[in-house]
Amino acid sequence: MATADASRILVLGADDSAQRHVASALFRLSGAKFDDAARDAVLPLTLKTKYYEADVELHLHDVVGNELSTALLHDAEEYEAMLWVVDASSHRGFVDVQRFVEKSMEELSFDVSLLVATRVEDAVSASHLTALEDWCHENAFEFVRVQSDSESNQTGESFAEKQGLERVLEALHCNMWRSMVMLPRDAAPSGFKDQETASPQIAGHPEENQHDGDAAVETSSTEPAAETTKDAKETGEQQAAKPAAPESHEDRLQASLSALGLRDGDDGDDDMEMLGNLISQVRRIRETGHTLSDEERRRQAERVAMQLWNLMGVDDDDEE
């Protein structure tokens, strides 16, 4: 895929093996091959969603005593996301990196900021995990718990909130990368254009509908037509008198998607999942909003709005 320079993700940690474990999982979940024997510090990966593809690079850096063991290959401003990988079974994974990250955040702002805690089942203590989570709330990071058993990180439901490594990949998918290339319109939700195309087939022109109705009446006798009208009216009154069946949460969400002009069926399931992702992002912004500056809150809100815009299949031409 021909793109501009790949977007860059800064992957930090005090334990190189923990960083590579997370990187290999992201490759596996993305359907890409990962060479466990390779010790490359820069790992190219293509993120693929229903709506776009983006070439990214994972830049792995060890932090020892709150200092980088190797210098960054690019200016810090060129990194669009930060994944801080912490081995929860040791205090070192946090204390050896904490001051470096906090100092970096004073000068930099990332589109995606995640603290990925691995081996949470072997955590030093429950209070250690609580301290990690509290730090994330105070510093506008998202806290993601990852267990060693990859199966326990999977939700098993398409609309349920992702957990563990699946949540890490989901967060990356929800970002608007500088290198992203939107897929052709026929490969993405068609949005309002499909709705506009379908409308004439459903409603038609009022004059044509009236003409067709008059022609139908002329071909039948007046009395049967009156009886049919009466029966239809009674049936309609009976149906109106029936109490409406209670809607499930999924029914209401599907109705909302239909109102937006999004597709049903398998595509509708994908749309529901993507909308669920956006709802999760809004919830997280509200939870951490008090720790963010006005500019950061505005930037995150704009990013979510852009994703909703793309979900509805609207582009600049539609807006005009």
From TrEMBL:
Which superkingdom, per the lineage? Eukaryota
* Extent of Low complexity compositional bias: 216-227
Region of interest: Disordered: 188-252
Which residue ranges traverse the bilayer? none
The Basic and acidic residues compositionally biased stretches are 205-214
What is the name of this protein? Uncharacterized protein
What organism does this protein naturally occur in? Pythium insidiosum
